[in-house]
Each structure stands twice: as C-alpha cells, then as structure tokens.
Model the fold of this input.
Amino acid sequence: MLEVGHFIGGKRVAGTSGRAADIMQPMDGTVRGKVALASREELRAAVENAKAAQPAWAATNPQRRVRVLMKFLELVQNEYDELAETLAREHGKTIADAKGDIQRGLEVVEVCIGAPHLLKGEFTDAAGPGIDVYSMRQPLGVVAGITPFNFPAMIPLWKIAPAIASGNAFILKPSERDPSVPIRIAELFIEAGLPAGILNVVNGDKEVVDAILDDPDIKAVGFVGSTPIAQYIYTRATANGKRAQCFGGAKNHMIIMPDADMDQTVDALIGAGYGSAGERCMAISVAVPVGKETADRLVERLIPRVESLKVGPSTDSSADFGPLVTKEALARVKNYVDAGVKEGAKLVVDGRDFTMQGYENGYYMGGCLFDDVKPEMKIYKEEIFGPVLSVVRAANYEEALRLPNEHEYGNGVAIFTRDGDAARDFAARVQVGMVGVNVPIPVPIAYYTFGGWKGSGFGDLNQHGPDAFRFYTKTKTVTSRWPSGIKDGAEFVIPTMN
Done:
C-alpha cells in the first residue's frame, strides 16, 4: 500500500496529524494508498524550513539558480514514462494525456531559465543633476501554491518554477487526490541541486489551506480550482495582507460561423470537449453554431463521433479518454445530465450508462451531447467538468457573441471561421481572457500569460510568462546622488528634476 506523507526540509517525512485520506485509482475503483493530511503544526514546520533557507537562495545569483532548473529538466526526461504512468493511475487520464500534462509544465520551466533577463530592473543615467535612478526586482520571501487534481504536474510547475527562479522559497499544497507526482517533482528538484527547504510539499485539506492563508510568513498565494473556493482564498489571503492570484471555473464557448471548415470544427470539438473526460478548465463545453443550417450540419456530424468515442482505462493507449477522478465526480456529472433532460434540453447522445468490461468499479462515463440548450438552463450556467458538450444555437453572429460576453465565467473562448474580419472583430470584442481563432483550446504558450476574466480569475496578475515574475517579486527603486557638487544647507521643497 502506497504511503504519501509530506516533503519538508529536503526530504520525505511521514504525517503526524493522525489524519489521512485514500488515494484512489479511478480506472478500477481500488484504493492505491493513503495520503497524510497535515495539521497547522506541520505546515508551520514547512514554513520554518523555508524561512531559514530562503535568504541564502535569494543571495544566489539568478544564473546559478536557473542551473538548477536546467538540471531538473534533464532529470525529468530520465523518468518521463514513470511519472506519466503514476499521474494517469491517480488521476484517471490516459498516459498520453498525462505526458502532455507534464510537458506543458516543463515548457514553463524552460521559459524560467530566462530569469536573469526577466528579473532585470531599469536604469536611468543622469535623471537629474548628478542623480541616477534604478530599479531592482527582489523576491518576496516564502510563497505558496494551492493546486488542483486535474493537472498534478503542470500547474505545480507553473507556480514553482518562476517562484524559485525569482529567489523565493515555495510551499506547495497539491490536491490530495493525486499527490505522488508533486512529491516526486520536489525530490527531483533536490537532486538537481535545489537547497533543502526551498521547495516543500504539504498535503492536506481545508485545515492546511486555512493555515497557509493565515500564516504571517507566507507573503503570496496562488490557487487554481473552482470559483467559490478561488473567491474564498483570494478574500482571506488579501485580508491577511498577502498577494493572491486565484483562478476559478470556466464555461468555454466555441462559436462556429457558417463558413467554418466543418471537418476541422468537429475534430476540434471532439478533442476539446471530451479529452481528459472534460476535466480541464480549458475544455470546450459549449458549441455555438450560427444559423440553423450550421447547427443542423454540426449536430449531424457530432452525433456519430460522440457515439464512437472510445472510453478506457488509463493504461489503454487506444482510449480517447479515461474515467473521472472520483466516484463523487461521476455522480455529480450524471446529476447535471439528469438536470439538463429535466429542463428540456435534447440529449441526443447519452453516455450515462456506460460500463467498462473488467473495470466495472471504475468511474467511467460515455460522452454526452445536448442540443437546443438554452442560456437559462443549469447545464449552461454551471461548470460540469465532465464529458458533456452542450449545443446552444444562435440566430446570428451578434447573438453568438453575447453568450460568452454575458456569461459569469470568462476563461477561454474560440471562434471557427474562414473570415479574417469576423475573427478580428470577435477577438477585439469578446469579454474573455484567452481567445482561440480556429484553435479549440487557447492555452497560451509558456512565454505569454495564462488567466481568465470575470468569475474565472481573481487578482491583477496571471500565471506564467512575465506576469509570474512580477507576481513573485517586489520592485525597489533607488534614487542615487553622490556628494560631488551638492550644495550646503537643507532643502525644504519637494525634490524635482529642475
């Protein structure tokens, strides 16, 4: 039986709280192991280790800090397959998808190798008579990240890499549902030369989350998860004087114009709507065809594709997607489908009764497809986080544009069209943080920033890219004048450049 504790002071440590949770294997419903749930005291031990180690790490020049990242990248490549299999077994996604999870995290690590450049300040020579002005970026100290189950490698790496490259010490609270990969990531950073105490992993539930939010030595908190929890964490963290960037739920639309390439569109919807069983914050969950003819063609093409989706265990290389993460998640998604039927949406493909031969206790569900979904319906308003795609028909382009603009969430959106003018107008006017043009999942590349608008994001700065270095550092500006040429006597007026 697997036993997962914490990673504090450069090594694995057992939990001491007496509390633990099961680590499930979604593909067959078996218990894979136990994960310790930390107490406030255990969190405090991690903070003390981080505080002790951080000053020396901050004093290490950025070029030497990023050498650790370069070595880490090499070490991950040596056990890529093992990490992906572990991730797939604990999350439920296919191994191929798990490899993508790891790779998107590594791409941010690669960008952070440019930290010596990204951390440079500014300098103005002779800003006034004998006066120079310059700025410098300095680390915050101890910072923390609270990350979700659906990307147990990618999102921790999005937060760890820029934080430690900037000279901070980092405390990670990953999801207790799939904790093995985050712990192994911490071990690999130590093997790569990261000093003990700079990266700590503390597993737990709400008790340790609240301890992070209340701890006076933690200067910043990043979070990814549902919107209600994002709001809670942002409010409590900022009330305690911390910086916070919190990313919440999503309801990502794809607008399909009449001139769109329908083959390309259907392929995009199938992958973006049903990949990873829909457990992605960037999944397309709403298709908005413009005009009746477009809608009829789209649904006609989608039905056989959804019906033929191959659902299988995480280890099946031919599966399109695997099980959901927990038995509770499966029940929740099925309840949403029930609600859609009750509200009058047309369930044209029903995957609720899917079972996997030989894996009857796994958390499987086939793809579901709704047509004639209305904006007032629960399945449209709320994030389902499962293999369910809703078709909302729009009479024209303006009606289609209003749907994402008026929705509570503003994470990602896409338009499929051959018309450059329509695409340009859409990108300019849509009130959503990340936009795809003939790209179904518009996750920005690692040197741009990732973040949603409205109920999908709380805080002024986004994840990865330049914003990450702004978030994990504070700017100090120095105005310098040396004695030569300074007049005698006090000056009582405010300094100016005259």
